[in-house]
Amino acid sequence: MKKILVTGGTVFVSRYVAEYFVKQGYEVFVLNRNSKQQPEGVTLIEADRNHLGNAIRDYHFDVVIDVAAYTDADINMLLDAVGGFEDYVFISSSAVYPEYGTQPFVEEGEIGLNKFWGKYGTDKIAAEAALQKRVPNAYILRPPYLYGPMNNVYREAFVFDCALQGRKFYLPKDGEMNLQFFHVQDLCRFMEIILEKKPKQHIFNVGNQETISIKDWVALCYQAVGKEVEYVNVYEDIEQRQYFSFYNYEYYLDVQKQSELMSETKPLLTGLQEAFEWYKENTDKVTKKPFLEFIDNYLNQKECISIK
Question: What is the CATH number of domain 92-307?
């Protein structure tokens, strides 16, 4: 039985990853401060990543799956503290690509400051560089928007709330902005594949091959709830993050290298249905933003919108 260390393990991606690999028969250890409920079937190593001391000095892992590193310091502290490991997988981000870069973004393309993601993206770049310097054979994955069960970010859950309340949906402009998604289970499946096949490529964009317009994505979210959507188009120049789940930023990752190893990904409607089934029982686990309050107190008073 292979031993896997998952950093974090209590929220969304890290929790899903931990439970997924438990189900696949791995011996899974999670590293966190024990401030939240732990995943089922794991062994907890209770420690603060910033003050590890000897907490993991005596462990040797077959795989480290680092979901919770955001900076180069996070990487270096873990590497300094761990006893040993064979493989290392780091969940980075598509935020490493500057918004002005040529799209679709390719793994070999320019990385740099993205004005929408700011320090989060540049910190991920520094984390990648620190890992590559110390563990040249580590695998680095750059996903777009992750979704699925356990998602604590108010994205699809916001649309589910609108559907459940029978609301019209306030859509930025004509709704033609495209987004790219990746189901968290597909992320786990791809990690299994690279750990098995050990490809020469060590940095991968990961995601669905196709993008989807926000209008169609909202419609799928309503469909997952069993409702039909009626849109209210917002044409006034209002910061859309005040009433919508995403920035006014369209980008597209080239995932051809991923597709050569894993040709199929979960259909988006299926993934959203799974997300909704989880959300119905776990509404308290999502960090909600005041989108509905802004809509009720501001947008529905404006004359800049049209119903379609």
Answer: 3.40.50.720
